[in-house]
């Protein structure tokens, strides 16, 4: 439930774009309508990788008419996760969100994602396609299998049901001081593994197929995902290893003290 306390909070929504000229203006408009309806304050940061279809130019024009839109232009296609991390560096909001530009992520869900962070229920809220049943419209069976398989591989790292989601919000403190080394598409998984938070909440929503344009997901991104998994498994193993060494040292000190 969303109530009046949602007002006067500052939210930054990061939107990575590559060839999204038909989707971006619609999405930004819908986001600001939601902001207005729920009394949210904030900004949108578009991170464009010099899209050949001119998305960057369209974003420039949008930002001239609304100073809540910030733009980051990068020289060329450097990847979704690194675009999102670039956006984090420029975020002024106390709450940060990430959304795809293609209208697969319905902006109407934003209040439900922001509200638990505001009321202290959770510092990290993920819009989940897999919370109840399968909430994905129009995906071919092959894509569903790949998505489920990717999630299974991440299971030892997290219990989150939709750790592959591209739609999530968190308190800025979750990423304060942590080093993200983004590889590929799955920035959420890296934040889940490395971030600072007590609990994660998942909110069910219905994922829609992209509104216009083509997917940028290709075989290279699947390879990047495997590389990311290796890195994150190593990251966690290191933590476990250091924990064991600390416990052994503590034990030795206690024994010597007797
Ligand atoms: N800046 C930047 N944005 C990217 C890049 N690759 C993808 N994106 C954006 O990231 C978001 C997700 O990419 P999509 O192509 O929609 O990937 P997907 O949602 O897995 O696949 P479809 O929805 O089927 O197209 C979209 O807003 C893209 O425009 C990139 O290299 N750089
Ligand atoms: Mg998409």
Q: From the 3D structure, determine the CATH topology.
A: Spore Coat Polysaccharide Biosynthesis Protein SpsA, Chain A
Q: Assembly state here?
A: single chain
The total beta strand count reads: 7
The main β sheet shows up as:
7 strands, mixed
Class, according to the CATH hierarchy?
Alpha Beta
What CATH architecture would you give? Alpha-Beta Complex
Spatial extent as radius of gyration: 20 Å
- The helix/strand class is alpha/beta
Shape: globular
Describe this structure in words.
It contains seven helices and seven strands. The chain is α/β, with parallel strands linked by helices. It has a seven-stranded mixed sheet. Strand 2, helix 2 (55-65) and strand 3 form a beta-alpha-beta unit. The radius of gyration is 20 Å and the shape is globular. It starts with 9 loop residues before the first strand and ends with a helix. It binds guanosine-5'-triphosphate and magnesium ion (MG). Guanosine-5'-triphosphate binds at residues 16-18, 20, 47-49, 77-80, 83, 100-102, 104, 166, 210, 215-217. Magnesium ion binds at residues 100, 102, 104, 210.
Characteristic key phrases:
single chain, 258 residues, alpha/beta, Spore Coat Polysaccharide Biosynthesis Protein SpsA, Chain A, 7 strands, 41% helix
Give the topology:
Elements: E1 10-17, H1 24-38, E2 41-48, H2 55-65, E3 69-73, H3 80-89, E4 95-98, H4 110-118, E5 124-128, H5 141-154, E6 168-171, H6 187-194, E7 200-204, H7 219-257
Parallel strand pairs: 1-2, 1-4, 2-3, 5-7
Antiparallel strand pairs: 4-6, 5-6
The structure holds guanosine-5'-triphosphate and magnesium ion.
Guanosine-5'-triphosphate binds next to strand 1, strand 2 and helix 3.
């Amino acid at each position: 439930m969303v109530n009046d306390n949602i007002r006067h909070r500052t939210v930054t929504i990061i939107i990575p774009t590559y060839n999204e000229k038909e989707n971006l203006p619609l999405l930004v408009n819908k986001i600001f309508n939601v902001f207005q309806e729920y009394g949210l304050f904030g900004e949108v940061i578009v991170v464009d990788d010099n899209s050949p279809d001119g998305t960057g130019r369209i974003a420039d024009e949008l930002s001239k008419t609304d100073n809540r839109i910030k733009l980051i232009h990068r020289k060329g296609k450097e990847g979704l996760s690194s675009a999102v991390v670039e956006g984090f560096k420029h975020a002024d909001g106390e709450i940060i969100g990430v959304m795809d530009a293609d209208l697969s992520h319905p902006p109407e869900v934003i209040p439900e994602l922001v509200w638990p962070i505001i009321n202290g229920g959770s510092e990290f809220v993920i819009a989940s396609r897999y919370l109840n049943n399968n909430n994905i419209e129009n995906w071919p069976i092959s894509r569903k299998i790949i998505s489920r398989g990717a999630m299974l591989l991440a299971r030892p790292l997290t219990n989150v049901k939709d750790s592959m989601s591209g739609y999530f919000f968190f308190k800025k403190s979750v990423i304060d001081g942590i080093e993200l080394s983004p590889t590929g598409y799955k920035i959420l998984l890296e934040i889940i593994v490395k971030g600072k938070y007590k609990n994660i909440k998942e909110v069910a929503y219905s994922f829609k197929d992209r509104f216009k344009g083509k997917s940028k997901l290709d075989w290279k991104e699947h390879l990047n995902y495997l590389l990311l998994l290796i890195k994150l498994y190593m990251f966690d193993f290191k933590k476990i290893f250091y924990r064991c060494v600390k416990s052994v040292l503590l034990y030795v000190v206690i024994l010597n003290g007797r």
